[in-house]
Design a protein that fits this description.
globular, 6-stranded mixed sheet, alpha+beta, Nitrilase/N-carbamoyl-D-aminoacid amidohydrolase, 4 helices, single chain, UPF0012_CS, 22% strand
């Protein structure tokens, strides 16, 4: 939503979580929802250009890189990771997306028991474009704040200009 409360963009999750961890977690999102058909262009906000993704999309760096190419400065990943996947992958994936895209990553996270068969990991956090966790909630409900410093983001991008070093002419040719 925009500052005056108008719809600024709508994003539909493009990757559905169909995973089975025997004895730990089973997710079959494709049994009750359809995947989104497109990546949405970054949205201008007072904090910076916001790239939209959701939960399981985090496992696919192609989205974060496409959003970066389109001008994103902040990537969002509202999520409900399970405890087994969250404890193993949550922070490392968020930090990887921040480092490879040189964006801030803001990840709201459901926490606690969703229903009798599912508990969400939580641990909402914010990562800066260098990959440092600059704010994090631990277990349980909470709120964390982080400064989004676009001057710092642009300095990181100037010092290590990976976007200009990418070789799309080689990717997909193996």
């Amino acid at each position: 939503l925009s500052s005056p409360g108008h719809l600024a963009a709508t994003y539909r999750k493009t990757h559905l979580c169909d995973v089975e961890l025997p004895g730990r977690a089973v997710m079959k999102e494709s049994s009750f929802t359809n995947p989104g058909a497109e990546i949405v262009a970054p949205v201008d906000t007072p904090a910076g250009k916001l790239g939209l993704s959701i939960c399981y999309d985090l496992r696919f760096p192609e989205i974060s890189l496409a959003l970066r190419r389109a001008g994103a400065e902040i990537l969002t990943y509202p999520s409900a990771f399970t405890v087994p996947t969250g404890s193993a992958h949550w922070e490392v994936l968020l930090r990887a997306r921040a480092i490879e895209s040189q964006c801030y990553v803001v990840a709201a996270a459901q926490t606690g028991r969703n229903h009798e068969r599912r508990t969400s990991y939580g641990h909402a956090l914010v990562v800066d474009p260098w990959g440092a966790v600059v704010a994090q909630c631990r277990e349980g409900p909470g709120l964390c704040y982080a400064e989004i410093d676009l001057d710092y983001l642009h300095r990181v991008r100037r010092e290590i200009p990976v976007q200009g070093h990418r070789r799309p002419d080689l990717y997909g040719t193996v």
